[in-house]
Amino acid sequence: MGAMSRVNSKRRRKIRERLCEAQNHRCCYCGEDIREGATIEHVNPSAHGGKSNWENLVAACRPCNERRDTMNPTKFYKKIIAERERRQDQGVAA
Ligand SMILES: [Zn+2]
What we know:
Layout: H1 9-22, E1 38-42, E2 57-61, H2 62-68, H3 73-89
């Protein structure tokens, strides 16, 4: 953790605002409203070595961020999608 520590807080806030806007203020994983307490995720963890590219960042809600923990974000995203599809298959409203 602390991958964003290299980025100064002003820039970090700007990145978060841009990410949230680009995602319509929705979590990239579950689609929850993230206007309150958005977290920034690295899509490619191998880019943790100082890289905080706009392309490598997504905004997520706090529960997803905590649920993902150390899981690869791509894997986690697939897991969320799989769960959602399973729910739809069962005919349960998501
Ligand atoms: Zn979420």
